[in-house]
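Hey Z.,

So I finally got round to the zinc ion thing we talked about over coffee. Here's the setup:
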Amino acid sequence: MDNLRRLGERLSIPITPDEDGFIGRECPQLDCGGYFKIELGTGLKGEGLPCHCPYCGHTAGLDKFATKEQIEYATSVAMREITDAVHEDLKKMEFEHKPKGAFGIGFSLKVKPGRPIPIHYYREKQLETEVVCSNCTLRYSVYGVFAFCPDCGQHNSLQILDKNLEVVDKMLDLAEDVETELAERLIENALEDCVSSFDGFGHELCRVYKEKAADPAKADKASFQNLNRAKLTIRRMFHVDLSADLTADEWRSAVRAFQKRHLIAHKMGVVDQDYITKTGDIQAVTGRKVSLGTDEVRRLVQIISKLAQSLSSDLQEAGKNP
Ligand SMILES: [Zn+2]
Ligand SMILES: [Zn+2]
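And the result:
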């Protein structure tokens, strides 16, 4: 049985990357099973590093993250190699003894080729967001947008927010070069994107850290479109002060910009008493259009960046020192 013996005790079936250089992975946690892809050779260096599921954060050895298709493929390739080896070995044992005499009985062993074991080929799936981790440089791709880095475990929420805020800055650059009407629309859209990026960011952080929240079931539903309300929610849920790292003036500016976005989104940008009460904006007049300049939105981008940094580290630390 030379051929079979040559296969050894362990068969190693290589898994080849897809056309973008990615290898598919699947979370072994039963209630998750999330599919994602990583590029080998990027990210952390070293043997036996654990892998983190980008969706649920589950951590285990990289070998536990093979996809069902990869396992089926590897099993079929292994079965094919084993049956081929056995076939070759049997072939060598072929013999034929002719019958002797009138009543003799002959024996023979002929090994005929059987139907080969089919190989279960597979294709990796197309995913939605490609990320290069800002911490460890792993290149990975996921469904949706937010994820933990499969190598170092760092969540990409700040990275995604930064990317979105960069686009906001570019929209504002554009607004400075076009006619008034278009410029106004661009500035309004930049403000809207700023607020919705922060809303998505805050929402995701609450989801990631919901186990630390006073009421985990409600933590997922936190909204960040209204800063004063978000501040109350964060205090109630995590005993963290959202505005702690901002100056009073920065916080006031941010609240005013968020309220302007509310007016633009829901009141055609026309000032009402509610806006004046919530912002204390002394320049605003009820019934008139609210003013909004690029400088104001640029300032908001900076404040949001600062706010996001501190919220991220505060929630990470939350609950550690009661
Ligand atoms: Zn998972
Ligand atoms: Zn990383």
